[in-house]
Every structure is written in C-alpha cells, then in structure tokens.
Amino acid sequence: MTKRNDRLLTLLALLLAGGLRLHRAGLLGAQADEGVHLVVASRVAAGAAVYRDLFENRTPLAEWLLALLFELTGVDLFAARVLSVAAAVLTVAAIVAVVRLAGGDRWGSLLGGLLFAAAPLAVFWGRFALLEPFAVALSALSLAAGLRAWRGPGGRWWVASGVLAALALLAKQTAVIYAGVFLLFLLLAVRRGLLRWLAGFAAPLVAFAALLLAQGAWGPFWAFASGADRLGAGLPWADTARMWLDWAARQPLAPLASVAALVALFSRRPALLLTGGWAAAEWLALLLAPGLRLGFGGLSHYLLPLLASAAVFVGAGVSAAEQDRRNRTIVLAGGLLALLTLPAWSADLRHVTWETAYPQPDRIAEQEIGRAAALLTPEDERLVVLGNAVFYLTAERQAASRFFHVPDYLGSSDLAPQAERALLDALGDVRTGAVLLSGLHLAERLPPAVADSLWRQWTPAARFSYPYQRDVFLFRPRDASAPQGELARFGDGIVLRALDASLLNGNTLLVSAVWQAETAQAGDLVVFTHVLDASGNLLAQHDGVPAVGFRPAAGWQPGELIADDHWIVLPEGGLPAGGTLSVGLYRPQDVTRLDRGDGSGENSYLMPLDLP
Q1: pLDDT under 70 in the chain at which residues?
Q2: Is 15 strand, coil or helix?
Q3: Is position 264 within any domain?
Q4: d(C-alpha 402, C-alpha 29), whole Å
Q5: Does any domain span residue 52?
Q6: Residue 102 falls within a domain, yes or no?
Q7: Residue partners of 323: CB distance under 8 A and separation at least 6
C-alpha cells in the first residue's frame, strides 16, 4: 500500500466517524444527561462559578469547553453536538496513531480506527454532547503521547501524556480507569518516564483543586465525587455477564479482541500490554457498573471508552500477529469468527442509524414544554425540573431555578439522603412557581417522601407528549383554600365547586376546576372544557380524565375535592370578545354527557370569559 493510499483510507475513516455521528444530529432533541451539560455550560458562559453556584457531581471540563463554544455561537444544541463529533473524529485519529506507535502496520491501524468509527453504540452516543466523547478522545491522545515517549526520546512527551490523562479525568471521573492502567504500566514496565508523567498528571488536578478551594467548594465536591459510586457492584455477576455476552455476540470486536489477547500473551510486547491493560480494565468496569443495560433502550456510558480501548488493542494485536507468520493462523481464525458476526453487527448499525425503535427526544416538543413552563413561572419565581434539564434551557429561566436528573441507581447510592433533602427543599420553596416532571421519574425514580410532598403541595396542570421520558407533566402550586358553595350540580351526584380561567398569554388558557362527588362513582368520566365565541361556535377545547389523567372518577371518594386543570391552546387571534367557557362531563364509552341536576335540560356549566 502506498503512503498516498494509506492517507486516503485514514481520511475516509475520519469522514465515516464524523458522518455517522452527524446523521440526524440536528433533528433530535436533547438526551437527559446532555440537557444537564447544556444548562451548566450556558450558565458558565454567563459568568456563573460552576462549583460554587452550580455544583454538579461531575468534573467540569466538558462544560467549560461547551461554554467557550457558546461564547462564539450562543447556546446551541447542534453546535454542542458538532463539538462532540469533533471529539469522536479525534478519537479515530488517535487510535490510528496509537496502533502505528505500538508497532502496528497500516492495515492494523485502519482496522482499529474503523472499529471505533462504525461501532453502532459509539455512533449512538457520539451524537450527544455528553462527557464520554471528550474523556475518550483525551485518553486516546494521552496513550499516543505515552507511546511516542516510550519509543524515545520522550521527555516532553511523558509530560504531555500525563497532562492529557489528567484532562481526561477532568472530563469524566471514570477516566481514572485509564489513568490507573497507564500509571501501573510506568511502574512495572518503563519507570524512566514516571516522574515526568506524574508531574504532567498533577498539574491540571492541582489547578482544579485550587479552583475548588477558591470557590469554597472542596467539601461538597468531595462528598459528591465519593458518593457517585458508579464503579460499585450493582447487578449480580451472572446477570451482568449474560447481558454483556448477548451484546458481544453481535460484534466483530469480540473475536478480534480474543486474537489480540493471544498475541499479547505470546509476544509480551510492552505496548500490547499497555493497550490490553486499558481494554481489560474497561471491560471489568463495564461488568461492575450498576444498573447495566446494553439494549438500545438503556445504553451504558461505559461502552464508549470500552470500544475505544478495545479498538486500539485489536488493531495493535492483529498487526503484531500479521507480522509474525506463526500467528497468522490465529488471525485467520479470528477473522472468520468476526465475519460470522458481521450480519448482526450491520443490523445494529442500521438500527442506530435509522432510529427504528428507541424513543428519541423531540426538539420541537422540548421547546413547547419550555415555553409552557415559562408561562407559569414569572422571572421572580423558580422552575424546578425533574427529568431533562433542557426544559429549563428552553424556558429561558433565571439561574436561581433548579434542575435535577435523578438516576435510576440513586436509591442505592450514598447520596440518596442528601438528594432527597435537596428535592424536598426545592418542592417546598415558596419561590418555586412550577414543576416539570417526566413520567419516567414519576413512575420509578422519585423517593417516596418526595412523591408524597409533590402530591400534597402541587397539582398537575398539563401533560405534554414526550415519549423519550414517558411524557412530561407540568405542576402548579396547589390552592390550599377550600372552595365554598355550588356552581353546578350534575348527574351521579357530582358537584362543580369552583371554576377559574387564566389567560397566560395571547393564546393559552388555563382552566382550573374543583369537583366533588357525593357518592362513589361506578365508572370513569371525561371532563370537557370548550371555548365558545359570542355566537356559540366552538373555538378550542380540551377533553381529558380529571387531573391530567391522574384522578379518574371511579377512584373518587365521597366528599373528596378533586383539583382538575385543563390547558387550552386558542386559535390565532386569541380570545374573542363575548367568549364563553362551557364545562361538563361525559361517559367515554358512549360520549353521553351528564345532565345538569336542576331540571333545566342543560348538560354544561357556562362561564363568561371576560378576561383582561
């Protein structure tokens, strides 16, 4: 192969890495973790101190990089993804360089780069502005600098390798896996570069520690970092290993990695020991990860560094085997096994590329949800987000607002009591004007005490379609005053105790009703809220099960007051003069309305909409 063709194939690998990750990147909304990074970066770009005012239980390098980008582009989701794509492309280039430095040939270096460039799960995560692309790129660059130093002369390269390893750690705490493997390699195999590498490694971490001390955030950072426990054992070993094997059986990476492992054992090359040690350590971390899920519905963050480290190891190992005729039989057998997995691997790639099943976040929906939340929270009130923090960003709220992304492993974490107190304080704060809550959090992730506080102090005002997190619910403060009197009486002993309508902006009407059943209800009912013009024509409506679906009539207790909100979007032109609100109930099975109990023959209550 000529040097020109070699460069051309390397360029094609880089284009593949970028093109696959940019596929539909501008159309999708924000993944939940990604929303946190975007929000924090936007605050940093506005001058906030990330660890004093905006503490997150993660290291800040990715947010700082995003903040620098936002200074140039403004807060932009697609721009953030382009930065992540650049990190993925840089990873491919670093893998090619590492394999070459480890003594591999051109084909081995290209194989390693292509394995990462086209790996389906890396494609999926590489589209999002998460921490992992930055940590992986810096780890691969650190490895390249270290191998360059190992081949000598390498004084400044050892320092550069240490600095890059520390920056990887500042991008993601779990990069300590890579840093630990490299340090062990220096202690056991090289030694001559140890002090220089440690000096480079210490410099960024010392600067970061000084920043924490200056901001008075050392204590909370250490408490969160030590309690994050993402490396603690979670699932039983047998279940974890079975899930991993189910995934690995679809990938050509597994047989090729086995080939590389055999070659590393026979050859005892230091470079192969280093790359193999990194891959093995990432494999172990993957097996230990709590709540591990390797299907497309819950991809583990650990797969990205695993794919990068294994791609380096495979490329170096296959190159070494190819250069030794005694090992060519091993290469051939491994290649045949890899070919057997290619159809399933190709299917995985098509699945990720075309998004056929996994529910994706929707950008338009996120903007609508954020605007809706802004309507309920004036600038002097706070918005609490439990779910995707990007809603906070699309609502354009002040920095005093709070957002929480409650991971599924929080209940078993040392941080659980601290997180529960923070959530309770946020929900009980009188300055909080609204709460946005995903259905995923509501169904599975809220601690019992937090869920109880939510339902006691807040009432659901609207539900928005957002399949990625099982829809999103907007809550407003519950009115503590009990309604008096009777506005209307309907059949089956149902009384309308209160009714109010608020025009939130030119074309959004919030209708708040209070119902009471004097007897138990045999079946469910649907509440209709219709906006009529002066001639009685229907302009807009919202029909739904009471309390945004949470309080079906069959579950009402006699005498219980049911708060019931309806979110109505009015047509162009807003509310007309002389408009009327018509409210009533009907049975869903036959759409039969309940008649008024006053003998008038009417089946709705009419309220004039003389709103300012």
Answers
A1: 1-3, 54-57, 224-237, 239-240, 288-301, 324-327, 355-358, 399-400, 409, 412-414, 612
A2: helix
A3: yes
A4: 20
A5: no
A6: yes
A7: 105
